[in-house]
Amino acid sequence: MKRSFSIFIKLFVILQSISVLCVSEEFDFFYFVVQWPGSYCDTKNHCCYPKSGKPAADFGIHGLWPNYKDGSYPSNCDPDALFDESQVRFLIKMTQVTILVYCFCLFFVYNMEQLTDLMSKMQKSWPTLSCPSNDGLKFWSHEWVKHGTCAESELDQREYFEAALKLKDKVNLLQILKDAVIKPDDRFYDLDKIKDAIEEATGFTPGIDCNIDSSHNSQLYQIYQCVDTSGSDFIQCPRLPRSRCPSRVQFPKF
Ligand code: 5GP
Ligand code: 5GP
User: What domain of life does the UniProt record list for this protein's source (predicted)?
Assistant: First the structure.
């Protein structure tokens, strides 16, 4: 009994050290990316409204993505390796059950409990539009696993989602565009005017990404704003994302 307890403690220490190494990945800044639902929905892939109903006609969060200044970015930083049998075969042989329980507790990447009280804010500001209609958990989980786990040196899971929600509330991009007479009315607008309006209102140049609707029109799809590594303040982008936009883009209704 004493012996197995001491093995457990040793394993705990080893796994803890591995986990610290694995989550301490650095990055230079975040992209805070929002999507226009009208542009997600009118492509040939269509969309489905979330189970909570049709989202508001507003930009919705896509994600908060850690990035490097050179344009590359980390992804899926949670140590899958610990779930990879070959990496831990020697440990698994010793105490398979202990390790599985440990991995489950430590690395289960989507802790539902942590999100429960955030749920209604998430549904409002971070709605999913993928099909079939769902509650958004898969989308949020995907964003956490792919991007959030690479910022664990700065934000734990709850802080990550809260940071994104706060950023959304800080800047009302739709209002900024409307104030500049750029409205979601199916008309075409100069890309530079969209960028200028946001830059004038926020002080920072945004990145704009476009997609193509089912009639082959390029349309305003995503807006990128850069954020410091704490996830709280907008900054000038160390590097703008690549853009697929022509000089005039459609702003579709939703
Ligand atoms: P797409 O190829 O549609 O632009 O991007 C596909 C996915 O790759 C995005 O949803 C996002 O998860 C990731 N991605 C694309 N560009 C970037 C980037 O510049 N930075 C980060 N961190 N992720 C990106
Ligand atoms: P990314 O492009 O960020 O790597 O992947 C986004 C993933 O989330 C895709 O698998 C996509 O199907 C799913 N997803 C679910 N809901 C949404 C949504 O509303 N917008 C986008 N862009 N992706 C969504």
Answer: Eukaryota
Mean pLDDT in residue range 113-130: 86
Q: 61: CA distance to ligand 1 center in Å?
A: 14
Which ligand is closest in space to the CA of residue 75?
1
62 assigned to active site: yes
Considering every ligand atom shown, identify the ligand nearest to the alpha carbon of residue 137 and give its number: 2
Strand partners, 207: 224
Q: Is 152 a catalytic residue?
A: no
Residue 112 CA to residue 155 CA, distance in Å, equals: 17
Q: pTM, whole model, 2 decimals?
A: 0.82
Give ∠ CA 235-241-243 in degrees, rounded to 5: 130
Does residue 221's CB lie within 6 angstroms of at least one atom of ligand 1? no
216 pLDDT more than 50: yes
